[in-house]
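Figure caption, in words: inputs first, then the predicted bound structure.
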Amino acid sequence: MQLLLTLGGIVSIPTLSPHLSPTITRGEEISNKIIHSSYGLMEVFHLQGSPCFAGRTCCENSSYRQSSRYYLPKPFLQLADGNISKPVLRNLCPGYGLSSTCRRDRLGVKATKQEGWDFGRFVKTLYFFQGPPNPAKLLEFIIEKLSGPAPSKPPSKMDSAGIILVSGATGGVGRRVVDILRKKGLSVRVLVRNEEKARRMLGPDVDLIVGDITKESTLNPERFKGVKKVINAVSVIVGPKEGDTPDRAKYSQGIKFFEPEIKGDSPETVEYIGMRNLINAVKNGVGMRNGKVLFGLADGKFKDLPWGALDDVVMGGVSESSFFMNSNGGENGEPTGVFRGVVSTANNGGFTSIRTKNFPVAEDLSAYDGLELRLKGDGRRYKLIIRTSREWDTVGYTASFNTVNGQWQSVRLPFSSLRPIFRARTVTDSPPFDQSNVVSLQLMFSKFEYDGKLNPSFTEGPFQLPVSSIRAYIKDPITPRFVHVSSAGVTRPDRPGLDLSKQPPAVRLNKELGFILTFKLKGEDLIRESGMPYAIVRPCALTEEPAGADLIFDQGDNITGKISREEIARICIAALESSYACDKTFEVKSVVPFSEPFTVDPENLPPEKDYNEYFKNLKDGITGKELLERSPVAV
Ligand SMILES: NC(=O)c1ccc[n+]([C@@H]2O[C@H](COP(=O)([O-])OP(=O)(O)OC[C@H]3O[C@@H](n4cnc5c(N)ncnc54)[C@H](OP(=O)(O)O)[C@@H]3O)[C@@H](O)[C@H]2O)c1
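Bound structure (NAP present):
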């Protein structure tokens, strides 16, 4: 292995390419000895301003200089080794005042198309990305290299389907949801207050988070990693004043009236503050319907990234690019970043790019399916490279894309389409792309595609690519990621002209029950405003009866009746998969009246319903609040 030590950045490079060896007059100096690499470091110190390193005369033919000439550029390459050629080597020392003929002679290189190389720009590039030299890091690196390779960490395994979190899993609806999800073989985690109760009810092996949604400090972010979908059946606890059986039989039967009271935490704490805490705990993993902006305008603020040019100057080329902000260059006059430059194949170069410095905190994009770039095309084909390692010289997960000349367009690059590329070669044994750990981005215009292929739309000369945003997106059709079990009646307590005698107890006793429905509605509002793709299911009175009766779905919060908890559990799970249910709020009851018990023949169970038949008639934006908003009443 060859080693390169640059400005504070320490990079290893693979064994010298056989393509190179014959072209280097002093090829024998390119040995595997680390001492040669440290010369590379000295060289860079020199280039930053001190005339010589450690009192040495900066002699053109000193051997250490020539060895470093070879080492320096290589780690910056995105190109295949075969593309590093004679002129590259020749042009690594123009800043020292040698004529190109002299340099060519010295290195024994015969080049075809040659231009002066800007060594200063090369150093600036190093400095931008790698920062100032760091002697401690250098020592650490040398020790590490001499003591053998560091044990490689296994790549973190990605479960693209994600985990479904069931909160309120020890409740009447929640435990049924868990049961059905498991029977479907889906990955389930539960959020419960009482571990012992949960293990007794759901089995000793249940994957659980022990937490109380009213206490944010109990919702350990680590335990929410990997959660991509949520079914929330948490509720403030209601029970009969006279008391209940240990398994809450009186509460659960749902039909016979009892005088209710709140047990434990208040509705405000559970249904509103608790909901806010729960949303905060899950929203990163669940994702936003409109995606996550990495670069561009988001909520009225411009989110920038630390871009810097990274051109073929790092391998001796003369292409040059820059990135700047145009404060009103977007299609609607919004700020826009512009990647522009002049690309040349002189000195066997042929690429320009802009790369971000490593993000201080890696972006977790596990909720999303890809990156979307909003840009104004120029008919050229570009590459987006995403890195998941903080190392400089590492695999870049890469996708090429075409643009249409003169048109603002959105280019979607699914994560599933990314190729692991290292120096323009596909790496067949690289770890899968870890979208929970995105560390840097790079946009490139290159002559080279991958694996020896060329970019079909490559032309030399000036180019310009305005990019107004880069955001992670959820692919269409978007389905609910947060399904919430609320309650019919939440908008009714303050509804003008309502005949309360015909309403269920919770509506009549809203005030006595600590404004239970009012805070359930506020909790719903938090979900609707959160940006997560959601579905809000509002059951009428819940029973322990089996699922299977015909159903009535409605919107606007008007119906009364009963429905089985088992049926609600099935509806919640079906909603997770239905784009019809996305961002909908609806009530549901069975067609069977209160007065009639509903039973099924265990030998002849009713067929599973296709809930899409119900979901597909649901409309956007109907909550029942429409009536309230005409005559608001303060809580
Ligand atoms: N009963 C009805 O007739 C009716 C009618 C319409 C709508 N609904 C609504 O339907 C939903 C589901 O009802 P259900 O009968 O399944 O409710 P449930 O049996 O009372 O279950 C409530 C669940 O929430 C959990 N919980 C309560 N506070 C919590 C907290 N601070 N942190 C974490 N978990 C907490 C409980 O945990 P523990 O096991 O630890 O107590 C329990 O698992 C509720 O929102 C309910 O209001 C009910």
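The first strand starts at residue 2 and ends at 5.
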